[in-house]
Amino acid sequence: MQLRKYGFSILKIQNIFISHVHGDHLFGIYGLLSTMSMLGRTAPVFIYAPTEFSAILSDFLRHFGGMFKYDISHIPLKGEGLNTIFETKSFEVLSFPLNHRIECYGFLFREKYPRRNVHKYLIEKESLTLKEIARLKDGEDVTRDDGSGEILKNNKYTYLPYKPRSFAYCSDTAPFGALKSYIKGVDLLYHEATFTSDMAEMAKATMHSTASDAAQVAKEACAGKLVIGHYSSRYKELTVLLKEARNIFPDTYLAEEGTEFDIPMKNKENDVYENN
Amino acid sequence: MQLRKYGFSILKIQNIFISHVHGDHLFGIYGLLSTMSMLGRTAPVFIYAPTEFSAILSDFLRHFGGMFKYDISHIPLKGEGLNTIFETKSFEVLSFPLNHRIECYGFLFREKYPRRNVHKYLIEKESLTLKEIARLKDGEDVTRDDGSGEILKNNKYTYLPYKPRSFAYCSDTAPFGALKSYIKGVDLLYHEATFTSDMAEMAKATMHSTASDAAQVAKEACAGKLVIGHYSSRYKELTVLLKEARNIFPDTYLAEEGTEFDIPMKNKENDVYENN
After folding, report:
1. Any bridge partners for residue B76, and if so which?
2. Which of A32, A155, A236, B243 is in the most buried spot, having the most CB atoms within 10 Å?
3. What are the mean pLDDT values of chain A's consecutive 10-residue runs (276 residues total)?
4. Domain that residue B254 falls in
């Protein structure tokens, strides 16, 4: 219902990423799969979820499989550190472990590094050959074809057409040291903030984060922007969570139904080369 | 989400009535049960649903039972005709079979007949004793205590304080003859109207009703008011369904999210006695 309300095309969804099999993170999938079926879907759906989801899905399909004219596959999440679980030509999705009461994963959605562009004014000025341009685009330093022995330094001749953008989704988790390394430099970080700091004991007991914890992760990961969510229902007024996070990480916002967070494309023509 | 949006208290729900185990009639229950749990529920929940629901629930509890601090019981629906499946002092819920692709039931929610009241002016005028009044309230004709042999006719001395109100829920079903008898005289009838009449073949094949079918049921059952719903997503504009139904049963309305239909209490002081 929410996807439709905000104008998303349900049938375009091909891949679904489930952090863990707690009801508040999972139970929407039944209605979504059912609606896809009613809309006449035939294209397969891939669900990336922890291993435990396998038995849940097979029981579901045993009872309700008859309604589906499309395949539903489960791709189990696993492993330590960052793992690429899905990719296209232009972007990739990686999973990484979180620290919750049951097996739980975060996701990093990021654009791949684009091929470098060669500055036009240098192509003209130095009469670069097509072969030299191609090699420069691959990121190499290039020895000129004219036998002069001159070397074209890649970082002088090329630039990144845009900076690859990234979004990380971290819910649910208690704070842990390695997290910041998984999401280093992410443009937009969603991180759960179930409690305020005065509930730190409760946060620890339930393996959740406080707003301060979330902000600390954003700060240490050098995130561009932080969006917090997954608030305990005890908070009728969410500004207390927002204020607490902004004390540590000013560029924090509340995840509220329907809010959009844009990650603007940054042109990098004047930046130096960066390795992936 | 919808219950909360319209101000219902989720924790007050004790009994849930499921017509059949198709996804669009069932899958909301997982989130509802999960939310009840998160709100700290300890009171039991009773789910009235066809027999097939039993295995569905036990698989669900096998995977997710750990989250519940309250009991979830399944009461299987069965039988031909009207069956009382739940009752309190003042009202009762009855189930009756519908005619769909899988086992499916409709529900009739109705107030019980209240105890009769004795007209005050007659109590005074005839100096009725407490014993005579009590027996009159039970609906009997009463021979006077004074030895006169005079008989107090119940329908002269008493009246129904209010007419018991009723609501029937019928989804999903193809039309069938016995339905009108189950819901005879219902004040408010909800009946599915998946298609318009030009799609009668499709309605038949999928065992659904057209708007005309729904209106015909309301008419033959002498319903007070008809509300139609369960529209096929092919109808972007619902007035075509409404118009079709109103041609047969003028007092028809569209079930749209958030609409309330009141069943006014009718005082019956001047009506004659009616047997239940």
Report:
1. B49
2. A32
3. 92 97 95 94 98 97 95 94 95 97 97 93 94 93 91 94 94 96 97 98 97 98 98 95 98 95 78 42
4. 79-114+161-276
**Alpha-carbon span A143 to A139, nearest angstrom:** 13
Mean pLDDT (whole number) for B67-84: 95
Total domains present in chain B: 3
Q: Find chain B residues with C-beta within 8 A of A28's C-beta.
A: 31
- Bridge partners of A168? A108, A189
Contact call for A30 and B23, based on CB within 8 A: yes
Residues B94 and B228 in one domain: yes
Query: Nearest CA of chain B to the CA of A267: how many Å?
Result: 42
Q: Which residues of B are catalytic?
A: 24
Angle at A72 between CA A69 and CA A76, to 5 degrees: 175
**Residue-by-residue DSSP string for chain B:** -HHHHTT--GGG--EEE-S---HHHHTHHHHHHHHHHHTT--S-EEEEEETTHHHHHHHHHHHHGGG-SS-EEEEEE--SS-EEEEE-SSEEEEEEE--SSS--EEEEEEEPPPPPEEPHHHHHHHT--HHHHHHHHTT--EE-TTSS--EE-HHHHEE-SSPPPEEEEE-S----TTHHHHTTT-SEEEEE--B-GGGHHHHHHHT--BHHHHHHHHHHTT-SEEEEE---TT-SSTHHHHHHHHHH-SSEEE--TT----------TTSPP---
Contact B63 A21 (CB under 8 A): yes
Residue B269, pLDDT score: 54
Q: Does A24 touch chain B (CB under 8 A)?
A: yes
Q: Are residues A191 and A266 in the same domain?
A: yes
**Distance between CA atoms of residues B108 and B189, nearest Å:** 9
Is the predicted pLDDT of residue B273 greater than 90, yes or no? no
Cβ–Cβ under 8 Å, residues B79 and B104: no
Annotation marks residue A24 as catalytic: yes
- CB contact (8 A) between residue B38 and residue A233: yes
Length of chain B, please?
Answer: 276
Q: Are A169 and A257 contained in the same domain?
A: yes
Q: Which of B11, B27, B64 to mutate to test the interface with A (most CBs of A within 10 A)?
A: B27
Q: Tell whether A124 and A108 lie within a shared domain.
A: no
Shared domain check, A237 and A103:
yes
For A55, name the nearest residue in chain B, comparing CA atoms only. B63
Whether A83 and A5 map to the same domain: the answer is no
Residue in A with minimal Cα distance to B33: A23
- What is the reported pTM? 0.86
Q: Tell me: do B125 and B61 sit in the same domain.
A: no
pLDDT at B275: 40
Interface contact A3, partner B, CB < 8 A: no
pLDDT, residue A1, reads 86
